[in-house]
Automatic annotation (TrEMBL):
Sequence ranges assigned to domain Metallo-beta-lactamase in this UniProt record: 14-174
Keyword Metal-binding: yes
Molecular-function GO terms, alphabetical: hydrolase activity; metal ion binding
Top-rank taxon: Archaea
Enzyme class: hydrolase
Keyword annotations: Hydrolase, Metal-binding, Zinc
Protein name (record): MBL fold metallo-hydrolase
Cofactor(s) the protein needs: Zn(2+)
Entry keyword Hydrolase: yes
E.C. code: 3.-.-.-
Family matches, as CDD domains: metallo-hydrolase-like_MBL-fold
Amino acid sequence: MYVHNVTADAETFTCNAYLVEGDRTVLVDAGSMPGVVDVIADRVEDVDAVVLTHQHGDHIGQLDAVLEAYDPELLCYADHPRRTRELDDGDSLRIGDEEFEAVYSPGHADDHLAFVGDSTLFSGDVVVYNDGAFDDGSFGRTDMAGQSREREIESIRELLNRMPEGVEDMYAGHGDEFNGDVREVVERALERAERREPKYPDE
């Protein structure tokens, strides 16, 4: 399975959007980078599905463009007018060559899902890596309306409980990709979240 960050060259604010090539070509989040459809087209001819971690603007800004270009299935937790499959906690889905379990993980967003496989984690914004606030294990912001640090902490704990041993690849919604002991990164994110200090103290 090959994972390519199709928003890596963005000059405007966006999430990391991952094109996963394999048995089932899937885009994990669409991002908000203009031209993302062209980046996808340089790599594949078709997209089977788009899977959303959540529906914040930086994750879905280019969703309509992707749906128009490829007419893929749309899988997500919260309602969306073009959703073809509702995902709930514990649902299974195939991304690339691997089976994943959807883990409901609110706190940063009420509709947040992470996707856990035997070797790979698509963490969305529940856990991120080298995001500018913390190196080597961080978490999505929880200081805006509708967000909750306490719920975020519960979600990170749940993610640890559901994540099998041996997960070595983490693709987060922001920051860098990580290859290594993903559990250690998630544990560090939990420790930092549990301190309950502001993630961005100057804002």
